[in-house]
Amino acid sequence: MNIFPQSSLNEGVRKREVFGWAMYDFANSGYTTVVLTAVFGAYFVGVVADGAAWATLAWTAALSVASMIVMLTMPTIGAYADLKAAKKRLLALSTIGCVLATSALALAGRGDVAIAVVAVVLSYTFYAYGESLIAAFLPELARDEAMGRVSGWGWSFGYFGGMLALGLGLAYVVAAQARGETATQFVPVVMLITATVYGTASLATFALLRERARPAQDGIGANQVVGVRKSLARLAQTWRHAEDFRDLRRLLTCCAAYQAGISVVITLAAVYAEQVLGFKQSDTMLLVFLVNIASVVGAFSFGYWQDRIGHKRALGVTLTGWIVMVLLAFFATGAGMFWVAAVIAGLCMGSSQSAGRAMVGLLTPPDRRAEFFGLWSFAIQLAAVIGPLTYGILTWVTGGNHRVAILCTSLFFALGLWLLRDVDMARGQKAARAIS
User: Fold this and answer.
1) Residue 332 to residue 140: CA distance in whole angstroms
2) Whole-angstrom Cα distance, residue 25 to residue 52?
3) Checking phi first, is residue 246 left (phi over 0); if not, alpha (psi -120 to 50) or beta?
4) CB under 8 Å to 130, separation ≥6 — which residues?
5) How far, in Å, are 171, 302, 416 from residue 356 at the CA level?
6) If 247 and its partner were Cys, which of 47, 119, 419, 428 is the partner (CB 3.0–4.6 Å)?
7) How far is it, in rounded angstroms, from Cα 266 to Cα 94?
8) What is the mean pLDDT of residues 59-82?
9) pLDDT at 218 exceeding the cut of 60
């Protein structure tokens, strides 16, 4: 059985180009795995902010500021990318920005809150730009009936990149701890390792992935100011005709709800493990490594499954799984149950994120891919503001009660499951084809 059939791809698309596209997921997964999940979040709370009562809130607030920047700018950037056929060029700029800002995280030591916050805001902003731009290539590569599996190829392969960066970092941490070094000595090196993996792996994307879009024939030429104005006008037109895309709008609302919960897990799992269950840095990194293995299985196998049973039904199953995972984490009093919750989180992580990307791709008109994935990015970043910030506020007002905060996270997944019921994929696809 050929698990990577050529028939899944659009005419003229070669498998090596899909590999180049998937390599970007490989490249940027190290950032989410190491910086957001396993290492820097807990380091910021426990070392940079020295465990202050406001530390978790400060970490989530920094990420929320970055998310708000992306929310306000990415839809316009996406519209501009479509008009100028500039997805690949803008992707290169965002990659350079994220690699440099991730390297700057190495400058943050004990008490260097301002340096850490600025570097986090910049690195996450550029990371989110790249995530949206690379997603806009998916409908150019995959046939409609194979959107789920191709999205799953990229997402599952991406987790190997996260494991590579995390594995290299873990090896360095173990060796450093054996030498008696402290977190202020080994965490900066881990940040540099992560930035190096990101930059190096992304080179395959820029070597193999093609920009198939063509600039709009509207006479804007090289005038960047006019191009931005045209982009804003086009985005305004999309909002005015939002009713034509009501199923996409409903899906984005659903995504914003459940992604708020996912954002909590990504950015605060290590903090929860260390603050509530007493995990050490190396234990947390091993835990996240296991989560990545489970995510590979979830994203890859789920992609085929959702193409077969339907995207909406499959996403509903994963959201139910997320609710189960949060309840297990809430009731966990020892490492055993939390490890089980982590495996479920991994299976649901890869599958739910891959499903959302594929569903948006199916509901997107061909000539507005970057723009509509910019709206998807808006929803994701709105979630990244609401989810972690809610968690941070709850821990602050409850005097550091992380269990209450994680339990409330289940409400985001329940809301997403409820909103999903109003999405009609067939009607949404028909609307997208009518516009193209």
Assistant:
1) 44
2) 35
3) alpha
4) 24, 28, 91, 94, 95, 98
5) 34, 12, 12
6) 428
7) 21
8) 85
9) no
pLDDT at 417 over 80: yes
The stretches of 179-280 forming alpha helices (DSSP H) are 183-208, 224-240, 246-276
- Whether this model's pTM surpasses 0.85: no
Structure tokens that stand for 362 in this block: 């199916």
Of the segments 88-97, 282-291, 352-361, which one has the largest average pLDDT value? 88-97
What residue type is assigned to position 251 of the chain? L
Query: CATH second-level architecture of 14-209+242-435?
Result: Up-down Bundle (1.20)
- DSSP code at position 179: T
Alpha carbon distance 132, 152 (integer Å): 16
Distance between CA atoms of 328 and 334, rounded to whole angstroms?
A: 11
Written as six digits, the tokens of 273 are 């493990």
Whole-angstrom Cα distance, residue 282 to residue 39? 9
Strand partners, 142: 9
First to last CA, the chain: 35
> Cβ of 177: how many Cβ atoms within 10 Å?
16
pLDDT band with cut points at 50, 70 and 90 for residue 155: confident
User: In this structure, what DSSP letter does residue 334 have?
Assistant: S
What per-residue confidence (pLDDT) applies to 221?
A: 45
CA 388 to chain centre: 14
Q: What amino acid is encoded at 136 in this protein?
A: A
Q: DSSP letters of 195-221? A: HHHHHHHHHHHHHH--------SSS-T
Place of tokens 């190290």: 30
Residue 215: C-alpha distances to residues 205, 304, 407 (Å) = 21, 34, 48
Tokens 């009660």, residue located: 401
In the chain, the amino acid numbered 258 is Y
Q: How far apart are CA 238 and CA 232, in angstroms?
A: 10
- Checking if the pLDDT of 74 tops 70, the result is yes
Which single residue is written with the structure tokens 């910021």?
44
CA dist., res. 398 & res. 402, Å (int): 8
Q: How far apart are CA 324 and CA 319, in angstroms?
A: 9
